[in-house]
Design brief:
With 266 residues, the chain is mainly alpha-helical. The protein has helices spanning 2-5, 14-38, 42-59, 66-100, 108-122, 126-137, 141-165, 170-177, 182-213, 224-233, 237-265.
Length: 266
Amino acid sequence: MSAALDREWTRFTPAERMARFAVYLACVVAIVWSIRTIEIIPEFLYDAPEQMADLLTRMWPPDVEYYPTDIHSALVETLHIATLGTILTLVAAVPLGVLAARNIVPWWPVNSAAQLLLVASRSVNSLVWALLFVAVFGPGALAGTMAIAARSIGFVGKLLAEALEETHNGPIEALRAAGAPWGAILLKGYWPQVQPAFWGIALFRWDINVRESAILGLVGAGGIGVALDDAINYFYWDRVAMVLVTVFAVVVIAEILVTQIRKRII
């Protein structure tokens, strides 16, 4: 009886404590290794607040007169890149999403091939896609549009495939029992269930594409990033501030617009 009373309760077993210690140790090693790898120069780190204050002083006030001459046309081009890239994304992502959904296409080689394409699309950053398409099509908005589309296909296709796989099977079985063809089952059984998710995904991706297309000009893919890159290269920091303010305003407006559209559609 006394032995039972002397037992001490512990939250973790010895094996669990060792595992937690190993995880903490691995995190510390990773942090120390990362700090040593990036080679932080202490003098630059100490001088950073002063340099940042000097940069902000040069950026204020923003050059408002620079907006109508160069920024406005570049901003319109950015919106065109994001919109057309999103449309191309939907055209390519919908078939891939259907092929990747295991409940619609129950053949694993087709599912695996579609998923491989989706993974390949979203595993490459949009700036890398832009560099590739600039090399193919040359500098300009076409390269930016193709980069936005190539990057977004994997995102939209994956989420659409997951939405299709989460649909209820009741309406599908009813349509099959009634002898409906495959196309009718897809349009009348699956589409009504995934339609809210589809429009939500499309709007969310367009919102992201507006932000991403704003920086593609840094590698020559058109848009407002070209104006930003020119201002930085010539040290026109007041113009840089005006570009950044414009990008911020557009992102906020796009966020509000997408939210309102989602409320009305979904």
